[in-house]
């Protein structure tokens, strides 16, 4: 009986030991993860000008797309990284950009719209109508675009929010000159402390520039509010 | 003797217990700090336009500076926060800015220079000579300014590095319109993963635009390279 008891006790001790060991290992793993994660979320910096390379494979989902263009292939650049981040959108893209005339960036936005991503664009009033602006093409495709209502003020931001969790911001306007010639910077981050304020700013500008609140400006019919439904 | 031994042993146990307790508390505090620090270093976002307020107290170190100007006093704004961050420089300020005509920002840079902070400025070639540009005033004071050498390219960055550890970057040019009228953003961070690449970019631009490497461009004597000593 005494031997049976001591066996039971031994089993208890072994069981408790095993549970303690497993819990200890789990706790150490959790601690390791927390300490490793203290580096924080994605932070990437891109500098421009970016050399011209083929980015066709980013638009076409086939693995072995045989592109015959004369540009270098299989090369990663600041611009291709920017495209990768934009095209990673699955749910929404909120874009706040002063000047938008870059054809490939426009193609990326149109592709996201086609894929069902909810795209919202806030842009500058004057720059939306300059030669080469892609704003018209976006509107034509049904993307909702709003512009700064005041003619005395420039909407000078250049940031995008991918799925409300990835911020792309910097000095880069969405033009060919900016991408291929100028000295520019773009930062990509998923740091919530940075993404949050930009998301709030976007929402603020989106609501402030709702054409429904500025009907008087549309009496001459020059500006199109038909495609600007609140989403 | 046996009582004396057990007293000694008791002292040992108590001593070891106290050491273990102190070490345990210290370790817990370290762990607490690490977990709390996992939020990471400074991250601040400023949006513009910024309302006009008195910022005189940021330039004058007297605690109770009696400013009689008609602007609101004791109000913190995006612009005053920007000034606070700039004026926190103790060793160096590396500034890379496309357009610089804001008088108070110029005053801040001149004040830092006067305090012995090593200021280096890289700016755009075309915009450095526009009406109201403060670049001339900086050069006159002996601050080393370099500009983008290529006339076909814009140096479109708008970032500053304070003491090589604080990055100030965004869409904001250093002009009165940008600060007081435009929709702009500025991010301030001490995140080393973000500060590092910008510091490298500054150094790259600083060296690439060293006038000593572009003597042929100065044969007509239009541009002044006298104040551009490498620091």
What is the element layout, followed by pairings?
The structure is a homodimer.
Chain A: H1 2-37, E1 43-48, H2 56-59, H3 78-87, E2 92-97, H4 103-114, E3 118-123, H5 135-140, E4 144-147, E5 158-162, E6 166-170, H6 176-180, E7 184-189, H7 192-208
Parallel strand pairs in A: 2-3, 3-4
Antiparallel strand pairs in A: 1-7, 2-5, 5-6, 6-7
GO biological process, one term (chains A, B): piRNA processing
Protein name (chains A, B): Mitochondrial cardiolipin hydrolase
Keywords (chains A, B): Hydrolase, Lipid degradation, Lipid metabolism, Meiosis, Membrane, Transmembrane, Transmembrane helix
How would you portray this structure in words?
The structure is a homodimer of 231-residue chains. Chain A is an alpha/beta fold and 231 residues long. Chain A has one domain (41-211): Endonuclease Chain A (Endonuclease, Chain A, 2-Layer Sandwich), CATH 3.30.870.10. Chain A is built from seven helices and seven strands; from the N terminus they run H-E-H-H-E-H-E-H-E-E-E-H-E-H. Chain A has helices at 2-37, 56-59, 78-87, 103-114, 135-140, 176-180, 192-208; strands at 43-48, 92-97, 118-123, 144-147, 158-162, 166-170, 184-189. Chain A has a seven-stranded mixed β-sheet, with helices on both faces. In chain A, helix 5 (135-140) links the parallel strand 3 (118-123) and strand 4 (144-147). The N and C termini of chain A lie far apart (76 Å). The A-B interface holds A 31, 34-35, 37-40, 43, 45, 47, 49, 98, 148, 152-159, 169-172, 177-178, 181-185, 187, 189, 191, 193-194, 197-198, 201, 205 and B 31, 34-35, 37-40, 43, 45, 47, 49, 98, 148, 152-159, 169-172, 177-178, 181-185, 187, 189, 191, 193-194, 197-198, 201, 205. Chains A, B: Keywords: Hydrolase, Lipid degradation, Lipid metabolism, Meiosis, Membrane, Transmembrane, Transmembrane helix. Chains A, B: This is Mitochondrial cardiolipin hydrolase. Chains A, B: Belongs to the phospholipase D family. MitoPLD/Zucchini subfamily. Chains A, B: One of its GO terms (cellular component) is mitochondrion. Chains A, B: One of its GO terms (molecular function) is RNA endonuclease activity producing 5'-phosphomonoesters, hydrolytic mechanism.
């Amino acid at each position: 009986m005494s031997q049976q008891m001591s066996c039971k006790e031994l089993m208890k001790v072994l069981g408790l030991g095993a549970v303690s060991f497993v819990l200890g290992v789990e706790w150490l793993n959790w601690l390791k993860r927390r300490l490793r994660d203290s580096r924080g979320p994605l932070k990437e910096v891109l500098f421009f000008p970016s050399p011209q390379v083929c980015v066709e494979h980013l638009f076409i989902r086939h693995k072995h797309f045989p592109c015959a263009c004369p540009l270098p292939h299989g090369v990663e650049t600041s611009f291709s990284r920017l495209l990768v981040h934009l095209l990673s959108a699955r749910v929404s893209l909120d874009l706040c950009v002063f000047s938008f005339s870059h054809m490939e960036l426009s193609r990326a936005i149109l592709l996201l719209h086609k894929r069902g991503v909810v795209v919202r664009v806030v842009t500058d009033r004057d720059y939306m109508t300059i030669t080469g602006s892609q704003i018209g093409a976006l509107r034509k495709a049904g993307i909702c675009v709003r512009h700064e209502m005041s003619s005395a003020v420039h909407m000078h931001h250049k940031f995008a929010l991918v799925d409300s969790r990835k911020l792309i911001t910097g000095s880069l306007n969405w033009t060919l000159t900016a991408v291929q010639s100028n000295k520019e910077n773009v930062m990509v981050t998923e740091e919530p402390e940075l993404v949050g304020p930009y998301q709030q700013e976007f929402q603020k500008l989106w609501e402030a520039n709702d054409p429904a609140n500025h009907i008087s400006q549309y009496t001459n019919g020059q500006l199109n509010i038909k495609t600007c439904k609140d989403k």
